[in-house]
What does this fold into?
Amino acid sequence: MKKVINLGIVGFGTVGSGVYNLVSRNSRTICAKTGIEIKVKTICDLDTTKVSAAVSGTAVTSRWQDITEDPEIDVVAELIGGISPAREIIRESMKHGKNVVTANKKLLAENGSEMLEMLADTGGSLGFEAAVCGGIPCIMVLNKGLAGNNIISITGILNGTTNYILSKMESRGLSFEQALADAQRLGFAEADPTFDVEGYDAGHKIAILAMLAYGRSIDFKTIPLEGITKISPLDISYAQDMGYTIKLLGIAKNINGKLDIRVHPTMIPKEHPLASVRNEFNSIMMDGDMIGPVVMNGRGAGSSATASAVVSDIVQLAGKPEFHPRFIGAAKLMSPEQRISRYYIRMLTEDSPGILSQISGTLGRHKISIASVIQKEVNAELVPLIIVTHEAKDSSMQKCVTEIEKFDFVKEHVTLIRVEDFKQQEKKQ
Amino acid sequence: MKKVINLGIVGFGTVGSGVYNLVSRNSRTICAKTGIEIKVKTICDLDTTKVSAAVSGTAVTSRWQDITEDPEIDVVAELIGGISPAREIIRESMKHGKNVVTANKKLLAENGSEMLEMLADTGGSLGFEAAVCGGIPCIMVLNKGLAGNNIISITGILNGTTNYILSKMESRGLSFEQALADAQRLGFAEADPTFDVEGYDAGHKIAILAMLAYGRSIDFKTIPLEGITKISPLDISYAQDMGYTIKLLGIAKNINGKLDIRVHPTMIPKEHPLASVRNEFNSIMMDGDMIGPVVMNGRGAGSSATASAVVSDIVQLAGKPEFHPRFIGAAKLMSPEQRISRYYIRMLTEDSPGILSQISGTLGRHKISIASVIQKEVNAELVPLIIVTHEAKDSSMQKCVTEIEKFDFVKEHVTLIRVEDFKQQEKKQ
It folds into this structure.
């Protein structure tokens, strides 16, 4: 039942090696989920020594024609970037009847109409989810998920480098130069950061999104681009005072049939969903006339995240539009006793001495340790006592509550709410 | 070049009428974007009088067999909900070689394995994007966008009614009962709200998501469900004091091969992206091993949003996995002079009288009105002056800045940052 896809990878840099590693690692998962087995048949890179050292069971070449002309290869991943020879590689692949996936935003943004004409001429298919905010499947959502909508506007934090810099300027009061140096040290900014901080990268992305949303070719050179180099800590501090945060936004709006497309720093209200997107994360808000606003957040770049987008395209191009998970039996569920969480406990108690010691004693006997206690002074006979615990087993916590509710000095039922700090995700951020 | 899809709609309630209206309104857009023309051929509802009054050019029937047995119908939209006869309608449609789309979360969550076996038996295809958080294309993202990933966890605000109630309890200090009454008045809660407030609806959605993410069937009855009826304003206020907000979360985690699936109120940190999802909006965070966390927000229910998901499925089932927008010429761009925005202007001026009057005079001559001014007392010769304007034309603003920079008392360049309040989106929220 499984379908084998022979993949040729052109370009073994950050994204190309990411795709090879993802396929090596998750091949079984992909096959179980989609019925498609991806096999990397050939990798092309000018530095064949580097590639040969990193891979096994795969042909290695420095001639891209070895991939585009290979009749056994089904899909070509063009991952070298830039205009030429990327353009030629895509064209030749399509002429030879192959589908192509690419992460090449420059080519699509600056030569978009040419690419689309090529598609029409050759009848080929091009996947480019990886070209816009790698880790966010926004192309698919815009093209297919919102296919029934007229797109009113697209607004996005489309560049991770600038969002990282602005986040650090805000959270640590750094200057632009200090935050940039910090980003460079951590690999979130290039040695020459011009392309990111002057808004070109965000410009490429909003150009591609606008082209798809409005079905019109767009001359990239006409899009006004403004970067973040002039933003000072003073501006960020004033923005905060006024309830705003500063983000570099790419914006495309349809205003009575005319498109307003631009990239510039923008003050947005602190409560807005885009305002809570911090550090290197990206976010795209698409507003459709039927669906309303849809917001997607995720990691916009990086080897694994971008590789994930490339693989998503490969699976879709394989012509299995419908998903048939092969359900291999019932799920193994975790037993309730094993569930672990932090807890908020609220109880109403009499205001007399010794109560806290008895309650904390009960928790202690069940090996539940206390993170914080709140008991405010109030002029009433009954006072609320709030305890937040460290991680504890669900079953232990339930037993504790039963015991606590038996104390004479505890009135009403105890309220129990789980506390989730998303530590794992925060670490990743 | 266009492909015509004959659609049969079974059930003309909120979602069914929404699909009819969406197709009537946006048929041209859909065809331009996807090359697919959707024609509603027949609508089935027990109340044929109601349907006949609302539609034109479409056959109306009260027998669903008139749709499932019609050889001209390509796709059946099952939009009546519940277990029976929805199950029979889907089965018969597939037996007759039709593809099916549905918004039926109860059927998928409680009889998911049966449905999937039916797919395997008949070779049919079933689209159910509309079954989980209508306005958020999360099924497509989970199945296809994240196809290369092992899913570590899914965490979501999956029910709009409870999120609306919790949001109002927080923002206005209402009790659960008051907020529920408010939600009922505005149509965000049913007359009998049990299904939503006790967590069943969120439970159905997390069951479907977990089934897809982990490729295992799940016994819905084993999922622990806890609703929000016991949450008091006190808990919300204490949570706020501690830097948390309370959300009803559906959670599915893979912990060493065992699934932890549950629905309960949870305290989450205020800065977390899920915390800023308010009112009737939904949000889903999917964490993949390669892509990292991907968060999607949008309207989870409602006639138009759910119809948008149904249409997205129809387009995808039509077997055009690849998107070929037909680019009909270059985009008409808005001229820079027409662009309108609010502005933050920061300048460094001498600390002497009459300066504010000269600057506000300049703005006034260009018909730019001032929303707020900040000038703090500082012990220095030069002081920062901040002005935030109401909406103004880009060209007028640029002229103003040129004039302001010519004043002797203005030092350095003027900093100009656009201010976006997302009023349109806020109104919608």
Observations:
- Chain A touches chain B through 136 residues (CB under 8 Å).
